């Protein structure tokens, strides 16, 4: 930059001299040769300024994207070769969370589906919502999982590059599902059954099971909302046996 200032000042001086010689020639107060010399000198100084300006532009490096300067890799005045990385700029306004989904679950997800992202911030769990933007067509033969990417806005910069987060995905939503304690289901020879209270008697119902979630299981068929399920002592009753309801939970 000092060389640029010097070259710029030289152009200003030569411009003043050129203007002065132009006026003197018009007044026949100096030979035209002096104006020609001033013209040549002004052209030389302008060319020098353009050269210095071009060299200065080559020393100015602009980041290809907006972001935060995470690390400066060179020192001021250091010579570097073309293509050498000089800084690390990180843009975390929009981030991608990469997850590996087991092959048994990947069929439940589609691009555009929402996903919950949970991260610990100062000891408190904060939640964000992202969108599935990529599902690989290839499964990992060793892990039996498929790569999936979730994109989300990170305006408050809660997430950092390389950070580990908790991702919660909803495989499917079951409306009006009937869930009962898994222990209430009695394995039969060819089916599964539960006991319900019909008036004051025990009634055995064959049921079809659905998904199991923890200690609960979905009943796809065999029970209706409002049925009074026996969950304690049910293995010691028989169909038609009179039962005494000790306590009842809805």
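Q: What amino acid sequence fits the structure above?
A:
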């Amino acid at each position: 930059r000092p060389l640029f200032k010097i070259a710029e000042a030289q152009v200003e001086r030569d411009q003043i001299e050129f203007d002065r010689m132009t006026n003197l020639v018009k007044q026949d107060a100096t030979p035209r040769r002096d104006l020609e010399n001033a013209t040549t000198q002004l052209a030389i100084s302008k060319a020098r300024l353009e050269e210095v300006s071009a060299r200065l532009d080559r020393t100015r490096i602009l980041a290809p994207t907006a972001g935060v300067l995470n690390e400066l890799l060179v020192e001021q005045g250091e010579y570097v070769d073309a293509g050498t990385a000089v800084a690390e700029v990180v843009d975390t306004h929009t981030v991608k969370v990469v997850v590996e989904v087991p092959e048994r679950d990947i069929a439940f997800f589609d691009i555009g589906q929402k996903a919950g992202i949970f991260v610990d911030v100062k000891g408190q769990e904060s939640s964000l919502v992202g969108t599935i933007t990529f599902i690989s067509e290839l499964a990992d033969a060793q892990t039996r999982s498929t790569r999936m990417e979730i994109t989300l806005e990170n305006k408050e910069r809660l997430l950092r590059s390389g950070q580990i987060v908790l991702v919660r995905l909803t495989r499917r939503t079951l409306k009006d599902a009937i869930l009962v304690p898994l222990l209430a289901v009695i394995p039969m020879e060819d089916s599964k059954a539960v006991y319900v209270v019909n008036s004051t008697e025990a009634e055995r119902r064959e049921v079809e099971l659905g998904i199991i979630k923890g200690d609960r299981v979905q009943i796809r068929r065999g029970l209706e909302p409002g049925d009074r399920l026996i969950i304690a002592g049910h293995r010691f009753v028989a169909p038609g046996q009179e039962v005494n309801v000790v306590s009842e939970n809805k």
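Q: And what stands out in the fold?
A: The first helix runs from residue 2 to 26.
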